[in-house]
Amino acid sequence: MYSLSPFSKHRSRQYRNSRQRYWLRSYLGYPLVRDTQPNTTHYALAALQHTGHINHLITQNVDGLHHRAIDHLWDDARIDTRILELHGTLHRVHCQFGHVVSRDAFQDRLSASNPKWKAFVDELEATGKKPRTNPDGDVELEGVSYDDFVVPECLACLAQGRHNTNQKPELIFFGESIPQSIKERSFRDIERSDKLFLIGTTLATFSAYRLVKHALELKKPVLLLNVGPTRADGLEGIDKIEIATSRVMRDVVRAVLGRRASIDPVIVNLLNNGIHRPPLDDNDG
Ligand SMILES: [Zn+2]
Q1: In this predicted complex, what is the ipTM?
Q2: Which has the least CB within 10 A, 41, 58, 63, 184?
């Protein structure tokens, strides 16, 4: 016979609460992630990807916006081989047994399991109001707490008779190391490139910094475009330009492509796309 001690009962309840709390926050925050559009820098880079000037793009961002900037030109297979998301993505969810679903599909299942919260999200979207939060950053909703939030089961696990398996977004959380396959591919992408162009990054994470070191060891030219101090400052062999990427990237594309930038309709369209962000709001990408 198998029974839970009071201690482990308490522990498992705590675990369930933190999981409910995590997914409730994620449920409320996801519409913003889902609806965010690429900016001018994403589209400028997409232009250089399209013309073959950038063959391997490695991003530290998890928002999927580099994918979105080029998904009208490239299919998924091509995007997967040409864009590496070093720290994972917000757009997929996996369970501890490796079953993967899209975040959109998971959001729909969260909605279906939590009609009260869905009504709340619909109202926020309709009115444009921001949710009221308590000092812990949790949303307060009269008569409903995160205790009531239902995290749906992994359907593939359920079909195999497994209940309550842990599901999380495909992200590298703080303190986790990146999977070996991603690490190896990031090094290979550096080795296959003839130069490294770093854009809008302080290189604060080691997984990015060691790629710069690797490029320098291989004597590849490295150019860094970023405003403010970075972890690579002072490393020999790096050229640094302190200008916000959103100010210059479209001009960089025009300079690299010359006349094609004004006559190729695909490029013209990419260079006219994107939300203009304030220059100081530079992205860590
Ligand atoms: Zn599963």
Answers
A1: 0.99
A2: 184
